[in-house]
Amino acid sequence: MTQVTFLTPREHPLSTTTSPTPPSPAGGPADGGKTRRSPASIALWVGVAVVGAVCWSVLALSRGESVSALWILFAALSSYLIAYRFYSRFIATKVLKLDNTRATPAERLENGNDYEVTDRRVLFGHHFAAIAGAGPLVGPVLAAQMGYLPGTIWIIVGVILAGAVQDMVVLFFSMRRDGKSLGQMVREEIGVVGGIAALIAVFAIMIIILAVLSLVVVNALAESPWGVFSIGLTIPIALFMGFYLRFFRPGRVLETTAIGVVLLLLAIIGGGYVESWGLAEALTLDKETLTLMLVGYGFVASILPVWMLLTPRDYLSTFMKVGVIVLLAVGMLLARPVLSNEAVTSFATDGDGPVFAGKLFPFVFITIACGALSGFHALISSGTTPKMVAKEGQVRMIGYGGMLMESFVAISALIAACVIDQGLYFAMNSPAGLTGGTAESASQFVGTLGFSITPDQLTAAAASVEEELISRTGGAPTLAFGISQIFDEAFGGGLAAFWYHFAIMFEALFILTAVDAGTRVGRFMLQDTIGNVWPKFGDTSWKPAAWISSALVVACWGYMLYVGVTDPLGGINQLFPLFGIANQLLAAIALTVCVTLFLKHGWLRYVWVPAIPLGFDLVVTMTASWQKVFSDNPAIGYFAQADRYRTAREAGEVLAPAADADQMGTVITNSTTNGVLQATFAVLTIIIVANAAVIWVRAVRAGSLPTTEVPKVESTLVAPSDFFATAEEKAAVAAWEAERKESVGSGR
User: What is the pTM assigned to this prediction?
Assistant: First the structure.
């Protein structure tokens, strides 16, 4: 029989104390029992496999004819279902051997601030909200210039074999080490040299990632009073939910959720009336103002107790995120949109796309990071989440399942970008220096790409959503327009403008939750690093250290955010390639730790699980890093771009989109900085992998090596391992409830 764990509805969902001794289990490992599959179950999974095979065949073979977006939708869903049911279970039971009888750090080290036993559904919401930032929304939209097929394959295959594996395994290993950060695990498991390189690389890469996430929020909310109003109200709503669950109605998860969702919908609807209420001018903020506000929010959110703002906000935003994505799937079923672009475009082979330069390999694999494979997730999986997991068996649901959910977001974003008119797509995503910024000049530019759209059509598209659309780079406006088009066709009513602003708010909320969680993770990392020299500083419950670390983290990413906001070439165009490669280099570091610990634990038989994605990721990231640093094409190479602008400035010329000599200098400085950072990240990653390789050889020769895994402590906590309780779990719950009543009645 399977080890049964259950958290009763009466227990507090965000702060659960130890319980009476649970019913005696028949086995320890989570979900470890073998079950005989029924004919109905076999038929069901064969059916899912057949649907997936048919969908993939259509996508692979269709050329020149109209292709429905539903083929992508069902190819993704069938693949996710099979992967979660079989591959994730194999990793959980055969490889990691999750053990529900083992107390987690949340149970053993609970302190009411960072270590907090959390209901699995609330924690899934936090984890999903934290990992699902700009990447799954922006990356697929930008990569759509290469066609729908490359992105579809990478998002689905990548998440199954790489992204979800990384998230699940890193979460497991961090949890077994009291929630240690990724950099600290490298230092303790690989060695001092690799550890120092990792601590520097991981922290620096995380700063770039947080800056890009914040930049997308700023671009989405700039000059949008509706978005600022709605997003601003999510903060007091989340605070209300936190206090409501903590003090007023402990354990009433569904009740609190219902209240929060209603308030959130009212905030969204209310945003449409800010002009009539006389608030539009006050809430129309420029990018610089939003940058300062975001920095202040990041600091406060990272030092408050997790139950107060972080977990309820993430839980609330997850309902919003999942709800919108499910609604988008329903909308696609009703509207049945047709893909407007080709399976593979000429930009994929020529590498001269206006959205970003570079050929399909390696750039589609670093443009689409989150949704397929993302190193940022490893920071969350070794940051906030392992400090809140109630039972080891939940690692599969939260780690692997959470990443599959994010991948579905990426697929939805790709579809939304591929169903809109491709002339409009390139008019929106090409820089103003190319489109000219007007409907007439943008129409002419799009014509040079081989697409046709008239100035009147561009003007009509903008009027339909009541926003300017020319050169709205960054991916978020394009996704919002695609969502509004699908919803308007599916549900009717002429509400394209409402759906567009609704989608903008959804995207900003989607990303903002990753910023506050990421800042807290950065604080953990900085405290871990300084704690190696000054142990007291490493105590996460010591407020001076927490405040100082948080201030330093937000100052770092706030500076990079300001650089992106003021860059004449556009922050996304400059920072997103650096973000993409750095993010995948971070994934390489995380997977290196996974391979190292597999070998140190003596799991050579299963080392291929993290080793295959590690090998592919290293090839991709090192190739991309080489091209961004050494390419002589100014559209690709950072230093080549800096040289081009430097030469022009010395000749007294001003190159578009720079407007004067000062902006020319800004481009030169930013491009040079990006090149240096890119080279540094690649070198640090090579140092880490090289140091790890030495450990690999020693571990293989010895069969295993000592690790820093903490000794097992028996758990007295009871909680389920997945979303829904099985019949066996329900029976065990009844027995446990009876034992509790007997204990209370007898006064034991």
Answer: 0.85
